[in-house]
Amino acid sequence: EIVLTQSPATLSLSPGEGASLSCRATQSVGTSFLGWYQQKPGQAPRLLIYGTSNRATGTPDRFSGSGSGTDFTLTITRLEPEDFAVYYCQQYGPSPPLTFGGGTKVEI
Amino acid sequence: EAQVVESGGGLVQPGGSLRLSCVASGFSSSGYLMNWVRQAPGKGLEWVATIKQNESAKYYVESVKGRFTIFRDNPKKSVYLEMKSLRAEDTAVYFCTRVSILGMDVWGQGTTVTVSS
């Protein structure tokens, strides 16, 4: 089973600043099968990035994803107030289990 | 617009059973893998189960194997999660999701399961 570790657990930033969120896997993950989700309090998660670097419909271009192998990054340039949330990476390789990272909370 | 709506959550005693339902609209659910994902209070996301389009394969997280069963009724555009021998640690919000090549691209709002005496 592939285990995903996200760091840091919490990121304290101000609007307008940039953020870099890390996701490391215990085994190589195909770039087609790494995604990022955003979750705000009381809401369901929503897909933000798929296939490592592709923005889902409605994802602003200040969000970008990168990486390969076991190291992946979600970058947010110029944080907006609505970006303060919890972010999860997930690998959804050809066969389950479909594991999530533990999440990174981006807070003001 | 593609949507899924969950129902069936509630309060149940340890050892009890519950069936969750998920109804899809705005897309042909029979063409997709479908998932259940849960989130315990204050915790992260945990994948629970996946079912293939024609029920040819089902997958479960280790902690629910033998207790939970995922199944679907494609004509009714529905997916279900039958949960038995429930434990306190099964307390969570349960989300139904669609799985595509994009990942889990459609999520419901979730249904809350509380296991407590």
What does this protein structure show overall?
The complex is a heterodimer of chains A (108) and B (117). A six-stranded mixed β-sheet of chain A has the order 2-10-9-4-5-6, with no helix packed on it. Chain A is 0% helix and 45% strand. Chain A is an all-beta fold. Chain A starts with a strand and ends with a strand. Chain A has strands at residues 4-7, 10-12, 19-25, 34-39, 46-50, 54-55, 63-68, 71-76, 86-91, 104-107. With 117 residues, chain B is an all-beta fold. Chain B is 0% helix and 55% strand. In chain B, the strands form two sheets. In chain B, strands 2, 4, 5, 6, 9, 10 and 11 form a seven-stranded mixed β-sheet that branches. The relative contact order of chain B is 0.32.
Tags for this model:
heterodimer; A: 108 residues; 4-stranded antiparallel beta sheet; globular; B: 117 residues; mainly beta; 11 strands
Amino-to-carboxy terminus distance of chain B: 40 Å
Q: Which strand-content bin applies to the residues of chain B?
A: over 45%
Structural category of chain B is: mainly beta
Proportion in β-strands of chain A: over 45%
Largest interface, with Cβ-Cβ < 8 Å?
A-B, 27 and 20 residues
Number of helices of chain B: 0
Gross morphology of chain A: globular
Name the helix and strand elements of chain A from N-terminus to C-terminus, one letter apiece.
EEEEEEEEEE
Gross geometry of chain B: globular
Sketch the major β-sheet of chain B: 7 strands, mixed
State the oligomer.
heterodimer
Mean pLDDT across the residues of chain B is 95
Quote the average pLDDT of chain A: 94
**Share of residues in helices of chain A:** under 10%
* pLDDT < 50 stretches of chain A: none
* DSSP helix fraction of chain B: under 10%
Total beta-strand segments of chain A:
10
What is the terminal-to-terminal distance of chain A? 34 Å
Structural class of chain A: mainly beta
> Please, how many helices of chain A?
0
Q: Total strand count of chain B, please?
A: 11
